[in-house]
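PROTEIN DESIGN WORKSHEET
SECTION A - STRUCTURE
LENGTH: 252
TOKENS:
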């Protein structure tokens, strides 16, 4: 059992949201009971995730995508009301960390994705230094983007959309989880032979063809499954709490 304010202080000190310009509020988004026993982590505070966390008996949730985003008008109606109502009815705390959770050098989405693909960043690039870049890992030695796509499909259990560039051997690999397709140009400028992210938009196809750098869209959800449970496990370890990761399948 831990006091809520101790858990909150620990998370804030770990993830340092004050260092980021973000699209929504980071930290405690919905306040529930003052003591925490069991944490549930997940990618998004969707209704399905909240329902599963209630069933699991969680009293604090740690997610990457919270409830409130820039551009919303603030009304708790419709689907948003349904999510908030469930949290309030069960006195559940909701912690959400967006960019701070992508960026954290050990527990963040990018670091944890790199861990699974055997990549270690030796530099950062792009806006707010969210992009990670490093030498291709042992699994990529002497291979090209086609082989990398097959390896990612096996690791993430989801086939990426591949723009293979010019088929060059991979020496430097750059990555940024989620909807970071806009970081492709910065990844190219940073010297990447391949850039791995979650989503793709129209311009990246041309850039891959014209620069020869491979682009792999590996799924927004699929690339952001690892940060929240890594942080939650660290909180659980710190305070002796229970932790369960709940993955709500998402094709995106
Ligand atoms: Zn995301």
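SECTION B - SEQUENCE
RESIDUE ASSIGNMENT:
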């Amino acid at each position: 059992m831990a006091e809520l304010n101790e858990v909150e202080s620990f998370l804030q000190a770990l993830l340092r949201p004050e260092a980021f310009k973000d699209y929504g509020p980071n930290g405690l988004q919905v306040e529930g009971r003052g003591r925490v026993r069991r944490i549930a982590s997940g990618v998004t505070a969707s209704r399905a995730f909240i329902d599963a966390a209630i069933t699991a008996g969680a009293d604090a949730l740690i997610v990457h995508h919270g409830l409130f985003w820039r551009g919303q008008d603030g009304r708790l109606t419709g689907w948003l009301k349904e999510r908030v109502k469930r949290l309030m009815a069960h006195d559940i705390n909701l912690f959400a960390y967006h960019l701070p959770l992508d960026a954290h050098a050990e527990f963040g989405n990018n670091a944890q994705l790199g861990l699974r693909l055997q990549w270690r960043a030796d530099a950062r690039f792009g806006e707010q230094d969210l992009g990670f870049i490093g030498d291709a890992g042992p699994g990529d030695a002497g291979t090209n983007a086609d082989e990398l796509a097959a390896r990612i499909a096996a690791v993430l259990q989801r086939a990426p959309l591949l723009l293979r560039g010019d088929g060059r051997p991979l020496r430097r690999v750059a990555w940024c989880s989620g909807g970071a397709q806009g970081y492709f140009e910065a990844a190219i400028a940073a010297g990447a032979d391949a850039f791995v992210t979650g989503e793709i938009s129209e311009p990246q196809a041309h850039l891959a063809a014209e620069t020869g750098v491979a682009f792999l869209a590996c799924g927004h959800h699929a690339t952001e499954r690892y940060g929240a449970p890594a942080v939650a496990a660290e909180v659980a370890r710190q305070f002796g709490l229970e932790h369960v990761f709940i993955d709500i399948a998402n094709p995106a």
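SECTION C - NOTES
The pocket of zinc ion is lined by residues 64-65, 178-179, 220, 224 (CB under 6 Å).
Residues 227-239 form the longest helix (13 residues).
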